[in-house]
Each structure stands twice: as structure tokens, then as C-alpha cells.
Write a structure and sequence with these properties.
This protein is of the alpha/beta class. It has 13 helices and eleven strands. The protein folds into three domains: 52 residues, lambda repressor-like DNA-binding domains (434 Repressor (Amino-terminal Domain), Orthogonal Bundle); 130 residues, 3-Layer(aba) Sandwich (Rossmann fold); 134 residues, Response regulator (Rossmann fold). The chain has a six-stranded mixed β-sheet with strand order 7-6-8-9-10-11. The chain has a five-stranded parallel β-sheet with strand order 2-1-3-4-5. Helix 5 crosses helix 13. The relative contact order is 0.12.
């Protein structure tokens, strides 16, 4: 049966006029909508003009290098990157996980992919070896995209993720508002300050406490290496040294370990605990009242925008940089979603 413009419009969820403009290469359609309509038309077998075919649907192989380990958010993000090409024609993604805090291993993996990839997305520490690897790939005409944590001053095509400094300020605002208005001690946990994103969150958090909540004193900053066992050990040690700590902000991973230490101490619902990312584990602690709030970034949207941006770069198409900025969502027990 012949596929019609109406069929494409119905499947793509747009008007027939939009489909008509797209297939006839007329103006008035956003680039994202145009790509979506062309993808649907290709999948349905609609006869596209020959001019659009090769440029829009040339085969593309994308690679993504992420830190390995027990960070649930990163592991969820990896799965979404692997599945995210299902809606994009002729694009295949491969996900590689390496020791996250080892810049040499990361740079070596990036270089090993130089001659076999058409686009590379990385969640990476900001380190001279990593920056040099980005420059080498750029010189070889391989587009590189930073994700979740940025590496500025390198020739990357863009950064997909939230504004981490604003996220830190938001966490400080929430923790301050949820704490009593009297001198109290709070503690910080970071995955690693080698991640610029974690460093930016810390800066934002410290600044807003100094500006608006000077009665809250930051007594310690500990690194969990985004590992729940390390997070547990560090949190347990913290609670022994500072049994009167009233607030904890976890910048990175390891939430399970911190929550376990709070539960074992008997202070789980006394200490205001704010963290990042809604996962299967943080959901449980949010519902039980151990975690008071989460600042969530949508890994599905991050995966989709990363794939689209790298695909466009590989096909030498313009990228809408504004689409790479991912919004934050505050999650409490009362507004938790499925």
C-alpha cells in the first residue's frame, strides 16, 4: 500500500502541511522537527527526494565513553545511550565504560576509537591528558561532545547537561530553607572534584550558604569516588567525628552508602539530606524519608540530545546549541513520579 503524506503526518504527530514543507524542502520548519519527519518518512517507506536521502541518512557510528563503577545514574545513562538510536535512521551507538577517575585510561580509550568512530561523547574528568585527547580527535575531524560534566576550552561541539553551578546553589537554598535558623554544621560529599561538574556544584553550594545562610558551617568535604561502599565508610566516619551534624549535601554518587550510614546512626530523619538523581535506590530513600530532596536531570533527554547532536555533527549539519541545556527538576517525596 502506498504511503501518503497523511500517513507520515499521523505517525510523526505533525500536520500534513508540515510534512509537505519538509519533503519539498521548503522553509518554516524547525530543524528538529524536520529531522523527526524525515526519520519517520524513511521508516515508513515514503518516497523522499533523492537530494535528501544521502545527506540526511548517511550511516553513522557513534561511541560514548563513560566511567564504570556502581554509580546508578551513570549506568542508567549508559543503557539509554545504547537504546537511544532506535528512533534515528542509520545510526549505531556503542558504549564503553572505563575506570572513571583514571584520566590516562580514559584518554587511551578515546584515542583507540579515533579511526573507527564518527562521533564521540564523553563523561570525563577535566585533566590535561583528556583535554589533549579531545584536541587530537578534533584534528582528525572526529566531533567530540562532553556530557554531564563539561570540559571547557577544548574544541568540543558542545556540552549536554545541567548548569552544575546553579544546581549547587539550588541545593544550598533547599538545605538552608529546610534547616533550623540557628548555628549548625553541614557536610559535603563529592564523587570527585576532578569532575568539573562536581567542583562547580561545590562552588555554587558554598556561595549561597555564605550569602544567605551564614549560620550553616561546612565542617567537612569528603570524596566518595561515586562508590556506595566508599560513601558508606566516609559517611560513617563523618557521623562519628561530628555526631551533631545537621545537614548533608551529596554532590555526586554513593547515595546508598550515605543513607545506610545515616540509618545505622539512628539520625536518618534528623539530618537534612539532599542529593542528585532519581534512581531506583534514591527513590526508595526519598519515600522512606532518609533523603529529603533530589535535584534530578533527565538521563533519557540527555541521551537523546547527545545522540542527535553527534549525529548532526557527523553528517555536517548545524547543531542547535540551546537544545543541549538540560533542565533540572526538584523531587520531593510528595511529587515523586513513576
Amino acid at each position: 500500500m502506498k504511503v501518503t503524506i497523511a500517513d507520515v503526518a499521523r505517525t510523526a504527530g505533525v500536520s500534513t502541511a508540515t510534512v509537505d514543507r519538509v519533503v519539498n524542502s521548503r522553509n518554516g520548519v524547525k530543524s528538529r522537527t524536520r529531522d523527526h519527519v524525515l526519520t519517520v518518512a524513511q521508516r515508513l517507506g515514503f518516497p523522499l527526494p533523492a537530494l535528501q536521502h544521502p545527506a540526511s541518512f548517511a550511516p553513522v557510528v557513534l561511541d560514548f565513553v563513560l566511567p564504570g563503577g556502581t554509580n546508578t545514574y551513570i549506568n542508567d545513562f549508559a543503557k539509554m545511550l545504547e537504546r537511544g538510536t532506535e528512533a534515528v535512521t542509520n545510526v549505531r551507538s556503542r558504549v564503553h565504560q572505563v575506570e572513571g577517575l583514571n584520566p590516562d585510561a580514559l584518554a587511551e580509550k578515546m584515542r583507540s576509537l579515533r579511526d573507527e568512530t564518527q562521533g564521540l561523547g564523553i563523561v570525563a574528568v577535566d585533566h590535561p591528558n583528556v583535554r589533549e585527547a579531545v584536541r587530537e580527535l578534533n584534528a582528525a575531524n572526529v566531533p567530540v561532545l562532553t556530557m554531564v560534566s563539561d570540559i571547557p576550552n577544548v574544541p568540543r561541539i558542545g556540552y549536554v547537561g545541567i548548569d552544575n553551578r546553579s544546581a549547587g546553589r539550588l541545593a544550598g537554598h533547599l538545605l538552608g530553607r529546610l534547616s533550623e535558623n540557628k548555628p549548625q554544621k553541614v557536610a559535603l560529599f563529592a564523587g570527585s572534584l576532578s569532575y568539573r561538574g562536581h567542583e562547580e556544584r561545590e562552588m555554587g553550594f558554598r556561595h549561597i550558604l555564605a550569602e544567605e545562610f551564614p549560620h550553616l558551617q561546612i565542617v567537612q568535604l569528603r570524596e566518595s569516588l561515586d562508590d556506595f561502599q566508599r560513601g558508606y565508610e566516609e559517611a560513617k566516619a563523618l557521623l562519628e567525628i561530628y555526631p551533631d551534624v545537621s545537614g548533608i549535601y551529596n554532590i555526586g554518587g554513593g547515595n546508598r552508602g550515605i543513607a545506610q550510614a545515616l540509618e545505622e546512626s539512628g539520625r536518618a530523619k534528623e539530618v537534612v539530606f539532599g542529593a542528585h538523581e532519581l534512581t531506583e535506590h534514591t527513590r526508595r530513600f526519598l519515600l522512606s524519608g532518609v533523603i529529603d530532596f533530589l535535584i534530578d536531570q533527565n538521563p533519557l533527554q540527555e541521551a537523546r540530545e547527545s545522540i542527535l547532536a553527534l549525529t548532526k555533527a557527523a553528517r555536517r549539519k548545524p547543531i542547535d546549541v540551546s537544545s543541549l541545556s538540560i533542565p533540572m527538576q526538584i523531587v520531593f517525596r510528595e511529587n515523586i513520579s513513576a
